[in-house]
Design brief:
Blueprint (H helix, E strand, L loop, with lengths): L3 E7 L5 H4 L12 H6 L1 H10 L5 E4 L3 H12 L7 E3 L45 H18 L4 E6 L1 H12 L3 H4 L9 E7 L2 E9 L4
Parallel strand pairs: 1-4, 2-3, 2-4
Antiparallel strand pairs: 1-5, 5-6
């Protein structure tokens, strides 16, 4: 098993109305005002990311648009592969609910830093524990497919926490303690001896 270097970026901020609800895997638009205002952060990412990397996004448009913004900021445009298993946590019937309406529907106490506990399964959705399982499989498959390469993935907060949890072999409630902000960069490596976390939530331009 040879080294694969991962560069995971959380997508840009979504628009205000979407932020008012639990949007999960809904295909919500980005905030156009913030997209323009954060030009320096995109330029910093374009300069920071390795050239000759493989690029991937998820099926949701907010990840593709974020990648395209990085290309416009100076990174040479690349073909974008799609990794469905690195999509955000599916919240099932709770998607679209205002945040204030969620507590009455929970079967377990909420996490201190997330509306749901790590093992809560929304009706028709999935728990954070399940996200860790699928994201972990996806990361292993990508590492197998790209030995000795750099891989850039524009993904989601939940999926990036899940990838770090897989690397560290920690549980879902511990994973939810990780802060992953919009445009934050997380770096993971799979080496001969296993996974290594290089950094979590490095903010470009700061």
């Amino acid at each position: 098993m040879s080294e694969t270097r991962f560069w995971l970026i959380r997508h840009a901020l979504v628009e205000e109305n979407a932020r008012a609800v639990l949007y999960g895997v809904l295909d919500v638009p980005l905030c156009e005002t913030t997209l323009l205002a954060q030009g320096p952060m995109y330029r910093a990412l374009a300069a920071r990311l390795p050239r000759d990397a493989r690029w991937y996004v998820t099926p949701l448009s907010r990840t593709r648009r974020t990648a395209e913004a990085i290309f416009r900021a100076g990174y040479p445009a690349q073909e974008l592969g799609v990794v469905p298993d690195l999509i955000e946590q599916a919240l099932g019937e709770w998607q679209g609910l205002p945040h204030a309406d969620l507590p009455a529907r929970l079967t377990e106490p909420a996490h201190a830093f997330w509306p749901l506990s790590g093992t809560e399964v929304p009706p028709g959705g999935e728990s954070m524990a399940q996200v860790i399982a699928r994201a972990g499989r996806a990361m292993e498959e990508l590492a197998d497919a790209h030995p000795e390469e750099d891989v850039v993935i524009v993904s989601h907060g939940g999926a990036i926490r899940a990838a770090v949890a897989h690397a560290l072999r920690i549980g879902p409630d511990n994973a939810l303690h990780l802060s992953v902000q919009n445009l934050g960069l997380t770096r993971l490596e799979r080496l001969e001896g296993g996974w290594r976390v290089v950094c979590v939530n490095e903010l470009p331009g700061y």
